[in-house]
Amino acid sequence: MIESEVDALVTLAHLGEPGDQVLGAYVRKLGPVAAVAAITARKSGLRDGAGLHARLGLADPQAAREKCQRIGAEIITRGTINWPTQLDDLGDGAPFALWVQGAAGLRLAALRSLAVVGARAASSYGESVGRDWCATFADAGWTVVSGGAYGIDAAAHRGALSAGGITVCVLASGVDVAYPRAHEALIARIADEGVVVSESPPGEGVRRHRFLSRNRIIAALTRATVVIEASVRSGTTSTANAAVQLNRHVLAVPGPVTSPMSAGCHNLIREQGAILASCPEDVLEVLGPLSVSIPRGGPDKRLWVIPQRPTDDLTPREARVLDAFPGRGEVSLNKLVCDAGMSPMDVTAALGILAIGGFVQPSGMSWARTGRA
Amino acid sequence: MIESEVDALVTLAHLGEPGDQVLGAYVRKLGPVAAVAAITARKSGLRDGAGLHARLGLADPQAAREKCQRIGAEIITRGTINWPTQLDDLGDGAPFALWVQGAAGLRLAALRSLAVVGARAASSYGESVGRDWCATFADAGWTVVSGGAYGIDAAAHRGALSAGGITVCVLASGVDVAYPRAHEALIARIADEGVVVSESPPGEGVRRHRFLSRNRIIAALTRATVVIEASVRSGTTSTANAAVQLNRHVLAVPGPVTSPMSAGCHNLIREQGAILASCPEDVLEVLGPLSVSIPRGGPDKRLWVIPQRPTDDLTPREARVLDAFPGRGEVSLNKLVCDAGMSPMDVTAALGILAIGGFVQPSGMSWARTGRA
Fold first, then answer.
1. Among the partner residues A258, A263, A276, nearest to B270 by beta-carbon distance
2. How far apart are alpha carbons B217 and B213 in whole angstroms?
3. What is the pLDDT of residue A166?
4. Residues in Cβ contact with B157 at an 8 Å cutoff, skipping those fewer than 6 apart
């Protein structure tokens, strides 16, 4: 019997296929604990209920945590302080949990990130642009997110690493399953210097549809998606489409009209309204300032608001939590919950944003103002 | 004393600098004959009046016609049947007359034309795209208009010629002055198989500002301007800007982001709203159908209207002239003037459009319906 929300989310991450919106909506309505209980009791009423139930044997949260320890990974779940809240823009398709391996914190790294993706069968032109530009992005403090594949993905990761930057590799397999195998060393280096992340549990191999669901994570994690090269019908365009749906910027790099590997980019510019990027500075201009932007979801709002004063960009909820802080000294989570009158999860989420914005910082088991604002 | 409108326009073409809007407005108000008379009598009141007067000695219409005969050229003036009325979109900057050398009729050739322009210092990529695409355009029945310069211009002319198509070279010098000299043979071949045209009288050399005024003619003559390669600050962008102001389509061809010769094209796409063209078919799609489109000026209207029925696209004035035709048999210009109740110039202009549209055809000194519509 699973009683904690975190355990329920870890269980659900084992049960559902990535991006399963039906399961996502079900969990939204019942809450994770009740949803797992219903699936366990074969009373979910879900069409895939039997399939979900069948996977329960693989989904022991304690065993999952032990496995993580063995492979040097950690599990982060929705609503915790390390959760990249940008992923909530995926709605009912958002993952329940992520497996993360790496030195850099995913949430902070992803807050100042862009996706750089493209063809596996990239040309030397595309690989050179990917490598050079990503070195520039890393140099400017941006995290380069990509998929670890042959071609543009690998060039993007390598460019960021060459500049000593942080890069995030989102795998379609489990974090302990290097795919493609030839990139085992590259993926290991990314785990050492950046972050390797997956919504599939360790041990899981790749499946065709998981590449597509992985692409939506890349698009959702990042502020913009840059397509370096793509053929006309390619998986790369699925990342671009996901980015458009998520209200993220999409940029595409032109190339020779004689190169089939640039045809998809030209299509994105001409037909889909992608912004033409002719140099890294074009991309940086679209990304906006690095440090003071805080992500905001919702299709009607500007996705990334640049605040005029430090606190201008806080939501009422975040401002309420900040107001609950004493002028100086530390405060416990429990006291903040009490003083702000909000749920622990809401307070935790607000603390994450406030910490990223530099307003507060963790201090042991407590929190303190930084002096900003 | 000049009495005919044609002679007055030829005279004015000798007096003014190409694109002189002040002189253009003056001529619009007074009419060509009165304008020449006032300039001759030093009573124009124009700031440049003395300069214009000083050129009168070079501006003998009879001598101009004799010179044309010697060099195998002809002069066409505003309002005559051979006039490309698209040029009227230039307003007070429209030329008074054009010198034309060549086998093909300028007006008909220009009606189904596009401009292909670009850098003089083109790369082999740009030259190869220019040549290949223009062969395709010519093959599809389109006239390629360019400026006869090194680089893209020459590649465009040569591509059209290689496909047996018609190409128009608009010179900044007089039609008998090959510029650049190295293109003497190319320009001679264009005169043989296409059209060489200039608004400057024979014998005139190039001057810096005449390249800019020549570019507006290229933009105005054509349905769309395609920029193959351009550096960021280049004369090519003046053609593109003129095309935008004239409500013509502007397309630009992308290239490697590492090539400075593609930087101007990328700028046009990103900053100026030029359409990205990745293959000749992209251009043909924008150009629309070849035969049934009739040019319409004015910034508020769609410039090139594709009629649903043959006569749908006629203006009331043109429809009135068509209605004045007998059901069968020939009709003289004088009778049309009388029956339509319009001036000879208006009737002539309408006949030009009706002939291009395939509704009527000249028959000796008279006109007849073709049976269309």
1. A276
2. 7
3. 94
4. B134, B144, B146, B148, B167, B169, B186, B190, B194
d(CA A291, CA A127): 29
Residue of A nearest to B270 (CA): A276
The whole-angstrom separation of Cα A112 and Cα A134 is: 14
B247: left (phi over 0), alpha (psi -120 to 50) or beta: left
Q: Residue A298: how many CB atoms within 10 A of its CB?
A: 9
Interchain pair A255, B254: CB under 8 A: yes
Residue B159 has pLDDT above 70, yes or no: yes
CATH of domain A307-369: 1.10.10.10
Domain ranges within chain A, ordered by starting residue: 1-59, 106-287, 307-369
Q: Note whether B258 contacts A: Cβ–Cβ < 8 A.
A: yes
Average pLDDT over residues B228-242: 89
Residues 6+ apart with CB under 8 A from A250: A224, A225, A227, A240, A243, A244, A268, A272, A273, A274, A275
Q: Which residues lie below 8 Å from residue B69, measured CB to CB, with a gap of 6+?
A: none
Q: What is the DSSP letter of A199?
A: S
Query: How many angstroms separate the CA atoms of B160 and A57, rounded?
Result: 71
* Top CATH class, B106-165+207-287: alpha beta
Distance from CA of A267 to the nearest CA of B (A): 8
> Do A267 and B256 count as a contact with CB atoms less than 8 A apart?
no
Residue B366: CA count within 13 A, CB half-sphere? 11
What is the 3 state secondary structure string of A220-289? Answer: HHCCEEEECCCCCCCCHHHHHHHHHHCCCEEEECCCCCCCHHHHHHHHHHHHHCCEECCCHHHHHHHHCC
| Shortest alpha-carbon distance between residue B286 and chain A (Å) | 12
Determine the Cα–Cα distance for residues B157 and B287; give it in Å rounded to an integer: 19
pLDDT top residue among B148 and B341:
B148
Return the closest-CA partner of residue A196 out of A215, A178, A219, A211: A178
Alpha-carbon distance of B110 to B101, in angstroms, equals 14
The residue ranges of DSSP E strands in chain A, in sequence order, are 74-77, 97-102, 113-117, 143-146, 167-170, 195-198, 224-227, 249-252, 275-276, 294-295, 304-305, 330-332, 360-363, 366-369
Instruction: Find which of B261, B278, B285 to mutate to test the A interface (most A CBs within 10 Å of its CB).
Output: B278
Q: What one-character DSSP code corresponds to residue B226? A: E
Q: Which of A258, A259, A272, A276 to mutate to test the interface with B (most CBs of B within 10 A)?
A: A276
CA distance B356 to B221: 15
Stretches in chain A below the pLDDT threshold 70: 291-313, 372-373
Q: Starting at the earlier edge strand, list the strands of the sheet with A366-369.
A: A330-332, A366-369, A360-363
pTM higher than 0.80 for the full model?
no
Collapsing DSSP states into helix, strand and coil, what is residue A168?
Answer: strand
Cα B210 to Cα B208: distance, rounded to the nearest angstrom: 5
Q: Do A278 and B270 touch (CB under 8 A)?
A: yes
Q: Flag whether residue B263 sits within 8 Å of chain A, measured between CB atoms.
A: yes
Q: Measure the CA–CA gap between B317 and A301, rounded to whole angstroms.
A: 52
Task: Say whether A270 and B278 touch across the interface (CB within 8 A).
Answer: yes
Q: Which position has the token pair 């002939």?
A: B355
Nearest CA-CA partner of A234 in A126, A349, A78, A360 = A126
Question: Largest Cα–Cα distance of chain A, in whole Å?
Answer: 64
Pairing between β-strand A249-252 and β-strand A224-227 as defined by DSSP bridges: parallel
Regarding the domain delimited by A106-287, which CATH topology (the fold level of the hierarchy) does it fall under?
Answer: Rossmann fold (3.40.50)
User: What interface predicted TM-score (ipTM) does this complex get?
Assistant: 0.73
